[in-house]
Amino acid sequence: MGALDGQVAVITGASSGIGAATARLFAAEGAALALLDLKPVAGELLGLGTDTGHVTGHVVDVTDAAAVERVMAEVVERHGRIDVLVSAAGILDEVPFLEMTPERFDRTIAVDLRGVFLAARYAAPYMVEAGRGRIINIASQLGIKGGTGLAHYVAAKAGVIGLTKALALELAPKGVLVNAIAPGPIVTPLIDGLSEEWKRSKAAELPLGRFGRPEEVAPTALLLAGSPGGDIYVGQTLGPNSGDVMP
Ligand SMILES: NC(=O)c1ccc[n+]([C@@H]2O[C@H](COP(=O)([O-])OP(=O)(O)OC[C@H]3O[C@@H](n4cnc5c(N)ncnc54)[C@H](O)[C@@H]3O)[C@@H](O)[C@H]2O)c1
């Protein structure tokens, strides 16, 4: 028996990295999945369906409010309900603060913060109606410790942590538990653009001496989504981060 047998999970950013690893783990634990991404979800992920849960793919831009609202309604139409939302869609680019244009700042805030708001905003009503649900927002340790050349990303991720606490307070009495995960550096396409030199020196400063893998983050999402492990987490930010941050 899987930990998520019979549950329906929506995962944004599901085509790659942490979102895709979470999809694989949740499917192995029996969940039905609605996989959302800007890029079409690969056939390998669509083939994760099991006896207890089938998988649907949805191309959507998480910054588009009307599209996110529509896709959540479509998920409920196809799967019957939404038990779990994992918001993993995100972008990262590096630019010194003194060269950062307002447009570049706005773009990162739109995807990394507003996108998390929109997914929760349009998934939560179905959870509240059912009297139960889990929302898991993927933040970043950088939202806690800061980082150079990443003011837009750091602001967005700190915003996700704050948003998570606010939603947690409002929604816990309605049976919906909201938490965040703030990973450390994880080997995914997101960090492809960072230099090898930066990666080497960053790995050397980690107590664990290495970056994490997406498969090492997904089990934290499973903990928060599952029961009884996730039943008393409210507004928390868990840190699978190789020891980089110890709040
Ligand atoms: N990789 C890391 O080191 C790391 C560390 C901490 C936090 N995170 C966070 O984890 C989350 C997942 O990142 P990842 O490392 O798996 O990256 P990734 O690039 O492998 O995956 C991100 C996915 O989000 C999708 N996406 C981007 N913009 C979108 C949009 N507007 N609408 C819908 N989908 C969109 C992309 O197409 C991609 O499939 C992100 O929020 C990221 O900020 C990553």
Describe the protein's topology.
Layout: E1 8-12, H1 17-28, E2 32-37, H2 43-46, E3 55-59, H3 65-79, E4 84-87, H4 102-130, E5 133-138, H5 142-145, H6 151-171, E6 176-181, H7 196-205, H8 214-225, E7 237-238
Parallel strand pairs: 1-2, 1-4, 2-3, 4-5, 5-6, 6-7
Helix pairs in contact: 1-8, 3-4, 4-6
Nicotinamide-adenine-dinucleotide binds at residues 12-13, 15-19, 37-39, 61-63, 88-92, 111, 115, 138, 140, 183, 185-186, 188-191.
Explain this structure to me?
- There is one protein chain.
- This protein is α/β, with parallel strands linked by helices and 247 residues long.
- It has a single domain (8-237), classed as NAD(P)-binding Rossmann-like Domain (Rossmann fold, 3-Layer(aba) Sandwich), CATH 3.40.50.720.
- The protein is 43% helix and 14% strand.
- The chain has 8 helices and 7 strands; from the N terminus they run βαβαβαβαβααβααβ.
- It has helices at 17-28, 43-46, 65-79, 102-130, 142-145, 151-171, 196-205, 214-225; strands at residues 8-12, 32-37, 55-59, 84-87, 133-138, 176-181, 237-238.
- The protein has a 7-stranded parallel sheet, with helices on both faces.
- β1, α1 and β2 form a beta-alpha-beta unit.
- α1 crosses α8, α3 packs parallel to α4 and α4 packs parallel to α6.
- It is globular, with a radius of gyration of 17 Å.
- Bound molecules: nicotinamide-adenine-dinucleotide (NAD).
- The site of nicotinamide-adenine-dinucleotide has 29 residues, from α1 and α4.
- Nicotinamide-adenine-dinucleotide is lined by residues 12-13, 15-19, 37-39, 61-63, 88-92, 111, 115, 138, 140, 183, 185-186, 188-191.
